[in-house]
Amino acid sequence: MGSVENGCVEEPLLKSKGLEEDIEEISSCGQFIELAVEENKKLWCLAGPAIFTALAQYSLGALTQVFAGHLTTLELDAVSIENMVIAGLAYGIMLGMGSALETLCGQAFGAGQHHMLGVYMQRSWVILIFTSLLLLPIYIFATPLLLLLGQDPAIARLAGTFSLYMLPQLLAYALNFPIQKFLQAQSKVMAMAWVSAFALVFHVFLSWLLIVRFGLGLVGAAVSLNVAWWVVVVGQFAYIAMGYCPGAWTGFSWAAFRDLGAFARLSVASAIMMW
C-alpha cells in the first residue's frame, strides 16, 4: 500500500524479497509472534483512525438526538425518525455507492496511476449528486410517506419539517463519501480522523449553544448537524486542495464526465452489496 502519515507505516505491509520468495520463512514460534505483532501494529495504524472516523461521524446524528432530549418528547421523536428513517436511508445508499471507489482507487494507486484517483473521485461526485436529486422526494414528502407507514400525524408533520431542514446534509453525503475513499486509498486516514474529531467537538458545542442556550429547537438541531457535516466535507477537501495528495489531485477535470454509465452500474452494484 505504501506509506502512512506520521511514520506509522514506512513500507509495504508485506515485504517483497523478489520473485521466488515473497516473505521470509518463519522458522520458530517466537519469530511468528514477533512478525504478527509487527504486522498488527501496521494494520492498526490504518484501521484505528478509520474506525474512529466512522464512529465520530455516526456520533454526529446520535448526539443530535441526545441534545433533542432537551426539547419536547414530540420533537425528540421527530429528530429520531428523521435520523433513523429518512437520513438513514440516504446515508446507506450514498455510502454503498461511494464504496465503489474502494476498488477503483485502490487499483489506480497500486498501479501508480495516481492522477486517476482524483478523476474517479469527481466521477463519483457526479453520480452521487445525481442520486441525491433522486432522493429529494423522500425528504420533501417525508410527512405523507410517514403517514402512509402509519406514523402518528403530529410526529410525521414535525419529522417532515425537520427533513426539509436537513437537505444540506444530503448534499454533504454525496461529497463526503467519495472524498473518504479517495483519502483511504492513499492511507491518509489520520487526516480524516482529525477532521472528524474537530467536527464532533464543534458539533457538541454548537448543539449546546443553539439548542440548550438559545432554545432554537428543531431549527438549532438542524443547523448544528448540517454545519457539522459540512465541516467534515470542507475540512477534508481543504486538506486535498492544499497539496497533501500530490499527483492524486490535479484539479477539476472534464474526464469526470466520461464513462458515467459504467461507473453508475458499478456504484449501484456496490450499494446493493452493502445492503
UniProtKB/TrEMBL annotation:
GO terms for molecular function: antiporter activity; xenobiotic transmembrane transporter activity. The chain crosses the membrane at residues 43-64, 84-104, 125-149, 155-177, 189-211, 217-240. It holds the Pfam family MatE. It comes from the Eukaryota. Keywords: Membrane, Transmembrane, Transmembrane helix. InterPro entries: MATE_fam. GO terms for cellular component: membrane. Belongs to the multi antimicrobial extrusion (MATE) (TC 2.A.66.1) family. PANTHER family: MULTIDRUG RESISTANCE PROTEIN (PTHR11206). This is Protein TRANSPARENT TESTA 12.
